[in-house]
Amino acid sequence: MTSPTPFDNEIERNRQRAARGSVNATNDLAMALRDRHRLTGDPADLLEGIARLRTAIGYTRNHPVKYTLRVSLSALLLDHFQHFGDVCALHEALAGCDKALPLLAGENRLTAAMVRVDALVLLAERTRDPEYAAEAVESASRLPRTPGVQLVLGKALRMRYELTYDRGALVDAAEVLEEGVRATAVDDPNYLLVLNQLGNVLQCSAEDTGDESVRETAIRHLRAAVARTPSASQALLHRKVDLAAALRVRGRQTGDVAALREGVVLLREVLAATRAGTRPWGNRCENYLIAVLELVERTGDIELLDQAVEVGRSAHGQGSDDATIPLLLGLLHHQRFLRTRLRRDLAQAITAFTEVVRTIPYGERNHVAALGNQGRVWFSEYGFSGDPEALRRAVTALGSAVRASAPGTVGRGQTQINYGDALYAQYELSLDPGVLTSAGHAFREAVEIEALPPMARIRAARAWARTKAETGQWREARDAYACAVGLLPLVVPRRLARVDQQRALAELNGLAADAAASALWADAPETAVRLLELGRGVLGGQVLQSRSDLSRLHAVAPELAERLDDAFDRLIPSGHLMGAAADERHDLDVRLSHLLDEVRALPGFADFLAPPGLAELLASAAAGPVVLINVSRYRSDALIVQPSGITPVQLPDVTPDSVADQAAALGAALAASTRPGAGETDAQTTVTGILGWLWDFVAEPVLKRLGHTTTPSDSWPRVWWSPVGQLALLPIHAAGHYPDSATVLDRVVSSYTPTLRALRHAKARRTRADGDLVVVAIGDAPGAKTLRSVEREATHIAALTSATRLDGAQATVDAVRAALPSHGSAHFACHGVSDPDDPSASHLLLHDGPLSVLDLSALDLSGVRLAVLSACETSLGAHWIPDESLHLVSAFQLAGYPQVVGTLWQVNDLVARQVAVDLHEGIAAGEDAAMALHHAVRRCRERFHKSPTLWAAHLHSGR
Fold first, then answer.
1. Which uninterrupted H or E stretch holds 954?
2. Gene3D superfamilies under this entry (predicted)?
3. In 632-784, where do the E strands start and end?
4. Mean pLDDT in residue range 484-504
5. Where are the alpha helices (DSSP H) in 601-734?
């Protein structure tokens, strides 16, 4: 039994009047049946309305009312086309309007003209003939600007853009529809139609230009249209599809996985509410498959991919044309091949794209897309089999797709990147410099298309730089790499969930190192330092920027400063958000960008919150040299930064592979060291060898250049280490040959800093003079191994100074967070857990749960001095994103602690207590934290000189 609708009574009333011979009632009945069809999706109403109008037109052959009936029939035929896809219905609708228009006047004539424009727009969309779109625009432009006319004119202008890429048409469409929204009452039936269409046009404009503020406005309009549409209306399904499309583009442009997931959820709802086998179902399947592809590219969700393949197979032949579903199936199979390496998926993708290319005329949208994807799958075939013929086919197809693509468009840019990749592979086979030059040109053109997603532009810039480095054009390579590094902030906007930011930066691992190496080959060490600063610690840099002193701005523009403060406070690192909360965060990030532009337009504020200049970076090394150790496939160097300048020290024996080998050996040895017996002894021998390697090839050349060649007799010099890439996973501070004195520990006091900016920020922090200490001790955290030395450690340390203790059940997350701001120093004796898959989830295990890196990044503590993390792996970052220094030590620094003591790996409970107590005794005796830790570790080394895993993990970070 069907549910009642608002149109039932009207339909019944007009049905009775029509039975008594009323032609007007027949017309009203047909239109009411159309309205009910739009609400319920039942084609029976639509077919009945069309049949009744045809009959009425036959009865009124010589009566003027037949022209009104013809227009009504044309209106219903447009819905018939939308439901069944029969293009003959469009031609009949257009012909009916053409016949009726000359004989109508007033409102009837205006209605006929609007129906005619709608028919032309649908014909343009179906046939891809721009002449229909041009005629639609011309016809609508002659009509009075009522809300209904503004709606059809906006649709016509948008269609002209889609077929001609005339950006002026898109601008005009937005203006017309914005005027329509303003002129239409919210309760007017046309309001949601105009609002939704405006959202679609703005989304199209944002996709064309890359303007984020326009995209966020579009999503806001589309979400409002969805929220205000009755749940029983078929229009709600259309509007959900439109909103899902906008969310998909947001996800593609920004990397927001939550937006992609929300779009897939919306489209699942739409498919579940759509009758299978109908044309709307086919169209909605297309949208669903596109959304799934975008999401799977980010997440690799094979189960979702498998489900989508089945949906695509069931939708074959049900789409808006004969090519789209096969094209999407090809993409799904190719994506599955990339994830599973199953040859049959690659073969199915090749077959699908070859068939579409064969059947669709050259130059049409789907033909160009199929050509480009055919080239991609042939390139995958080459990568899988090494067949040169597959590479030749890839280059041919991709070159054809580039030539058939409109210049400056997103599609052209992405195809150029794929074409460049294939050309570079061809160069590697042939060593033809002309091919390499062509690859570089392809990548460079893609970089210059600003509407491309930032990640795509960075990939293109990085590949362009590689083509220059290949031929030793180091200045050009440096400039291309600088372009890529400069785009990094756009890849990780603040609005993104931290896990999405991490995923994006992991894909770009090593970019800063290669950029710096290119600058060094170009004899520009200053540029190398700046590129390392911009390309590493990007997420930490965002936090540091938001913690910057705004007092100068407060003095000049207090209201603007308050708005900026508020935006920073609300954009602290977060997890995934969806729906209106996500919209608000995206909109706020866009507004923050505009606020910064507004501030930088003020006199004297042009460089407001910009990355520090070279002079400021050099000043960071006033207390001692900072050594940036850069490891790249091009070359490796230590860059000694001092106030007087930058001194490069080449490290010829250090390569990415050799560092990775040492990191892997250290990981294996640390795992073996926990098992008593011969394995533990061998592990200590391995670690000793790694420390020797670090000394020979990394630390000793640097210390020799600095003149630190013997053990100091009085004051100890300090050195800050800032290693790049996986070298950050190794204990440079403990490098040396033991038991000889040729060791870092016997030459200098070592500290670490993720970047020069972080050290500069730490040195600028004001600290309180009091010695207040909070000691957090959890020896028996639920579900974790008991730490038996924690109680003695906490008692001994608390006795050295004025201390507040939070022990066991007292040490809850809320209690600790409340205690930190009111104590100058903090000591944690508890479990530390490093999460290799999500480093922002690494945490200290408190009584009632974790205190994570992400939680700590949201804190902004003032006046604090020192945090001691007497726990495991608190300075261990993730192997796949080492340049971001995402670990507990850096999180405490970002929270405000200018000095933090932590560990690189799991530490023995008893030894950790000895080092911690020794450290605090040194501090109580007046030593600086770095010096106190240095002496504590040296004393521990004397006790366990044959077991470096017990003492080499402890390190100091900060000023």
1. strand 954-958
2. Tetratricopeptide repeat domain (1.25.40.10)
3. 636-642, 645-650, 718-723, 749-752, 773-777
4. 95
5. 614-619, 656-673, 678-694, 700-706
Q: Give tens-digit pLDDT for 288-306.
A: 999 999 999 999 999 999 9
Is the Cβ–Cβ distance between 561 and 550 less than 8 Å?
Answer: yes
| CB-based contact 243:215 (threshold 8 Å) | no
The answer on pLDDT for 263 being more than 90 is yes
- Ordered alpha helix ranges (H), 278-359: 279-299, 302-315, 324-340, 343-359
Task: Give the whole-number percent of the chain exceeding pLDDT 70.
Answer: 99
pLDDT band, residue 1 (cuts 50/70/90): very low
Cα separations (Å) of 812 from 122, 829, 902?
63, 14, 21
Q: What is the pLDDT of residues 24-45, one digit of tens each?
A: 999 999 999 999 998 888 899 9
Question: Using CA atoms, how far apart are residues 449 and 414, in angstroms rounded to an integer?
Answer: 10
Question: Which two structure tokens, joined as six digits, stand for 563?
Answer: 């708005």
Is residue 349 within 8 A of residue 379, CB to CB? The reply is no
Measured in whole angstroms, the distance separating CA 30 from the mean position of its chain's CA atoms is 50
Q: Is the pTM of this model over 0.85?
A: yes
What integer pLDDT is reported at residue 693 of this predicted model? 97
The string of pLDDT tens digits covering residues 166-185 is 999 999 999 999 999 999 99
**In the chain, what is the greatest distance between 2 CA atoms, to the nearest angstrom?**
117
Q: Which helix (H) or strand (E) holds 851?
A: strand 849-852
Per the CB < 8 A criterion, the answer to whether 937 and 924 are in contact is no
Burial (CB count <10 Å: 0-12, 13-18, 19+), residue 809:
exposed
pLDDT by residue (tens digit) across 902-931?
Answer: 999 999 989 999 999 999 999 999 999 999
Residue pair 85/66 in contact (Cβ under 8 Å)? The answer is no
| Mean pLDDT score of the chain | 93
Task: Tell me the C-alpha distance between 688 and 946, whole Å.
Answer: 8
Report whether the peptide linkage leading into residue 280 is cis, meaning its omega lies within 30 degrees of zero. Answer: no
Helix (H) and strand (E) counts in the chain: 42, 14
- For 378-400, what is each residue's pLDDT tens digit? 999 999 999 999 999 999 999 99
Cα–Cα distance, 90 to 118 (Å, whole number): 10
User: Is residue 695 within 8 Å of 737, Cβ to Cβ?
Assistant: yes
373 in Cβ contact with 331 (< 8 Å):
yes
Residue 535 and residue 216: Cα distance in Å, rounded?
28
Cβ burial, residue 168 (10 Å; 0-12/13-18/19+) = exposed
Cα separation of 629 and 641, whole Å? 11
